[in-house]
Amino acid sequence: MRARFYVNPILCTGCRTCELACSFTHSIGGKPGRSRIYPLPGGAPDLWVPVTCLQCDDPACAKSCLVNAITRNAETGAMDLDQEKCVRCMACIAACPFGCSLFDSFHNLVIKCDLCVGDPACAHFCPTKALRYEPVAVPVKRSA
Amino acid sequence: MVSLTINGKLVQAKEDEMLLAVIQRMGIDVPATCHHKAVEPFGACRLCTVEITRPEWDGWTKHVTSCLYPVEEGLVVSTHTPQVIELRKTILDLQLARSPKARYIQDLAAQYGIMRTSFEEVPDGNDCILCALCTRVCDEMGFRAISTVNRGHGKEVAPPLHEAPPDCVGCLACAQICPTNFIKYTDNGDIRTIWDKTFEMLKCEQTGQPTITRAFAEYLTKHRGIPENYFKLGDLKHRHETAATMGRVALWERQEKV
Fold this sequence. Notes:
The complex is a heterodimer of chains A (144) and B (258). Chain A is an alpha+beta fold. Chain A has helices at residues 17-26, 60-64, 91-95, 121-125; strands at 3-7, 38-41, 48-51, 70-72, 79-81, 102-104, 109-111, 131-135. The N and C termini of chain B lie far apart (59 Å). The interface between A and B is large, with 40 and 43 residues.
């Protein structure tokens, strides 16, 4: 993993630019309902949290996928959903404890954040830099 | 890597790939109604038939189903020769006699210039084209609830003994993968019915949004190690919970810094 996606809720103003950037990048027409990132109220006044796929180390979506359509992209570190392989059993949507595997009822597709294959549009458009996509200088070692 | 020629173009392919994968990657439109990336190739529809030859074969050619033929070094493949097109036309003509009302087959046949079947229509024909995608995806997912039964004219897709299948969990993968939407199900948010078996839907404890069937959730808990409490809430409520948790952490971090 060469870069990492950072979310800083303190800086988020809830302007929903990320929603628009995401839906314009991934679908025609830019319907905000088809976005893969949602700024939601964080439990305090004026606190917003952009919720998107956290690309977990031990992802429940990949474990629940019985046809192995969700795999780790070695280059971006994101969990990629292979749309051609997906059979739309909705197991990942029910299993994700963060609710970040989404269903697009218009196209009848399961969608999730793929970090725009290494160049997230939401991070480009975020006016307050609450969303950042920055290279990791030193490989981060996780403690047990 | 092996190199082969497809329609006059030299292409590279991985050793264990099938011809159809390479052909589709090149953007050549070869119909394959029984092909899906999630399941093993089967060779039921024969529509992906292509003509292969080699320079040392002295002009002899062979027709093979590209979904089942592994790539070979120096192979020369033609996807749209007159013979192959004639073969596909015959197959589509026969499919249209069996499933005259299937929109998917009508469209495909129209691409090959067949608007109406030249054979007599099967009197009790239905939309099932016997591609067996449904049974194969059920096998692939590990349920094996349905299979093809009988042979020849009487071949059909059915659960064992035409009764409600005991192994079915109601995931709807078979209905979703069916190219002609032949597999019917009903889902009113509380109860889902497929293959004459009814399932209770799990619902979000707070919003009442239906997620998956209880049987499917139990299967995932037992065989895939997904904790049971993950299924208590729907995806919308899960997102709100995540936002609340991350918000708490962010506030706490800010207070620590100040």
